[in-house]
Amino acid sequence: MSITLSSLILLPIWISMAQIQQGDPDEKEKTTALKDLLSRIDLDELMKKDEPPLDFPDTLEGFEYAFNEKGQLRHIKTGEPFVFNYREDLHRWNQKRYEALGEIITKYVYELLEKDCNLKKISIPVDATESEPKSFIFMSEDALTNPQKLMVLIHGSGVVRAGQWARRLIINEDLDSGTQIPFIKRAMDEGYGVIVLNPNENYIEVEKPKIHVPSSSDSSDEPAEKRERKDKVSKETKKRRDFYEKYRNPQREKEMMQLYIRENGSPEEHAVYVWDHFIAQSAAENVFFVAHSYGGLAFVELMIQREADVKSKVTAVALTDSVHNVWHQEAGKTIREWMRENCCNWVSSSEPLDTSVESMLPDCPRVSAGLKTRALPVITAPAR
Fold first, then answer.
1. Is the pLDDT reported for residue 336 higher than 80?
2. Where do the H-state alpha helices sit in 23-90?
3. Is there a catalytic annotation at residue 293?
């Protein structure tokens, strides 16, 4: 077992408790006091002191990983798949490393959408000023002009961004399993325009501004002796605060704040915004949606807010493990009836593919995705 700084710090306390518990019953008060002290120690914070710096590469090459010809993430030197537990007993550090790699993969997928799928990156809000927070979506060249059909893709919640179904599958399986790229290419091959939503890009993060506290010496009306005493107290207070901050945040992680993107501050808002400014303006006679997990909920919310418009343009909706709930979302009877005719939800099930699965909700049919684990959209060969 490895000895960490936190265990060394706590060792004398544990020894003292053991000695007290073996001694006279009158020492119970000391035991209680020590237990109270232990309860006040944040072990997670102590363990941060054992961590290597949270300083990770910003490229795949820096991580010594690359995607091979099969779209699998492999170590450049060993050819092995990604290893999460890079350092034993440092779960938080390993998680931060995984998240840093995930951010690089997000940018990598964005590049694939533009270079391999020939999609355009469109900034939103469409009337954003230079200084305000912005997001973006991706569209094919003919997304708004294709007169026949348009495909709209919506991913689920969490860390995934435009072009992804599941980061875990991209890292542990391959690009075809975890990204929307096979769908985009298939749709474009079959003559669809394509719009890829980005419903989780709801805000940007910026560093919190440091609040300047005016020094007491700024007050020139006070006697010099009184100002000196105040300055001394202020310096001692700052010293204690800095010591606590060093303990609380040993890695000097930046304090961040979130600036939300106008009219796109949630997945539901984003879906409505993209509908109003792009999908509703498209020339396509038939619009098709593929929505995974929370993307299904976002679609139902869109339908609640734009029912007549959606019914007039949308031909069919493929849902996968959708988490929508027509009761909680208060979808009306006419929406539920339309969903029964125009939507289908493929769900995780051990039953063969497309086998009917019982539903507790009176909305769209549920059928098996042929997978026991979480269902994700899968490209199959077209019927002959």
1. yes
2. 28-40, 43-48, 60-63
3. yes
